[in-house]
Amino acid sequence: RGAMEYYGSTITSTYTRPRVGDGTRFLPHISTMAASYKSHTGPHVISHSLSLPWRPSTYYKVSQTHPTLQPLSKSLPENVRLEGIGTYKLTSSLPAARSALFTRYTPDDWFKSNYANYKQSDSTRNSAERLRMDTARMVHDEDQRTNRTQEVSSKAMGERVSDIHFWKRELNHEIEQQVAETNNLVEVKKRLERALAETESPLQVAQECLYHREKRQGIDLVHDGVERELLSEVDIIKSCQERMRRAIEKANAQLANNRAAQHELERDVSDKHVAHRIDDYCHQLRNTSEGIAYHRGVEKVDATVTVPETWAKFSDNNILRSQSERAASAKLRADIEALLNQCSNEMWAHFNNVNVSFSNRISETMDAKNKLQQHLAKTLQEIFQTEQTILQIKKAIADKEAPMKVAQTRLDSRTRRPNTELCRDPPQHRLVSEVGQIAETIETLHFRLRQAEDTLQSLVHTKDALEHDLSVKANSLFLDQEKCMGMRRTFPTTPRLVGYA
Fold first, then answer.
1. In whole angstroms, what is the distance from residue 181 CA to residue 164 CA?
2. If exposure means fewest CB atoms within 10 Å of the residue's CB, which of 103, 195, 265, 287 is most exposed?
3. Burial of 229 (0-12, 13-18, 19+ CB in 10 A)
């Protein structure tokens, strides 16, 4: 069979891969070191050369036969042996270097492969060199940036230490002033307590006026000038005892506020002292300092509760609160001094002030009552007219029912027209428009009716409120003019009023 492959036909194909087991390589390595970069591209794939002929007749001598009509045994060449017939000899025309000549690559392909490997080597080395240079530059830049960052942090720490020191000084100064003001208020309070033990003088008339004015009703139960004057007069007439007691209570409350503000200042100073010690220690730390260590994840822990603005505002608010309390304390001391000096002189002045206030209040109440009566009359007239308007609207709505029925009846009747007579002619358009217009008119009238009814309801409520307010004003006039002013005609004389003679 092996001999028959070359007899009577030509070889028309070539190998596309090396033969298995022949010991040959697909492409020899150019070095003994395997590629060390995973990103290294594979060898350049070289296609089969198109310069070689597709038939192997270029390198092989092909046997040829000329068939005849003779038997096969006579037509075979000499020494050719067929199975079952005999032994024959076939003269081979293949050269000795057949396998060497029958190759897939040309020298041009071999040089191209080498050139591709050279080019790949240059590209890889250039990339590695760029990476080394970029890495060195990056390391240098990062070192400089780290140093700058540390310098900025140290500067910020120094500024923070200065800020803490500034606020400590401000807080300590405010504490000293707060302590001095508290001591002054304590001394004035002791004087007021001694004066309270020496004052007494009740006045029942002023109390009766207050009791009667408590019977006022509704909006007239107002804390007006008359009531303020009466309250002030009661305090004075009762030997200034109530006023002094309120002053003592205010002094006690103010002392508590002063101590609370002082406590906040002292606590803030204590916190500032601890923060100053810690931040000063952090400011002194260097790369060569002892005690520095890694604290993994500490930058992710946000234990802060304030920002610089709120931190400064906290201390500023404490100082402002202390200053406000000191101002209130100084004002209270001045008020106590004035109370101690003017208590005996204010009794008569308040008597006159109360009488003037009563006269003014009675006049205001009478004017308000007269105006209320005028508004009540106008409201009643408007109620009557609104009721008439509601009747007119209802009549207008009823008048629109017949036109609506006519238009809808016409439309309904025209729907019974036969066949093509069901035409959407101008009368049809006008009827549809008429129904819509009448419906819109009815809707508008209903809306107007609701508005008129709401207005009428509002007017009725207004009438009730005016009538109630009139009764309230009449009651207030009776109390102020008859009850209170009647009693004040018998006000005690000056020696009894003063109570110090």
1. 26
2. 287
3. buried
**In 3D, which of 347, 346, 344, 337 has the Cα closest to residue 251?**
337
Q: Residue 88: is its pLDDT beyond 70?
A: no
Residue 233 in contact with residue 203, Cβ under 8 Å? yes
Closest of 172, 166, 170 to residue 276, by C-alpha = 166
Q: Closest Cα partner for 62 from 99, 94, 102?
A: 94
- Please tell me the distance from the alpha carbon of residue 283 to that of residue 174, in angstroms, as a whole number: 28
Query: Residue 181 carries which side chain, given as an amino acid letter?
Result: E
Instruction: Name which residue leads in pLDDT, 97 or 338.
Output: 338
Q: Which among 1, 8, 2, 4 has a CA at the least distance from the CA of 62?
A: 8
Between 228 and 25, residue with greater pLDDT: 228
Q: For residue 46, how many other CB atoms are within 10 A of its CB?
A: 16
Check: CB of residue 348 under 8 Å from CB of residue 498.
yes
Give me the pLDDT at residue 154, please.
Answer: 87
C-alpha 262/C-alpha 268 separation (Å) is: 10
For residue 444, which of 491, 393, 479 has the smallest C-alpha distance?
Answer: 393
Global pTM reads 0.42
Tell the residue number behind the tokens 């790369």, with chain if given: 287
Classify residue 480 by its DSSP letter: I
Q: How far apart are CA 34 and CA 32, in angstroms?
A: 6
- Which element (helix H / strand E) includes 277? helix 241-284
Place of tokens 């505002």: 313
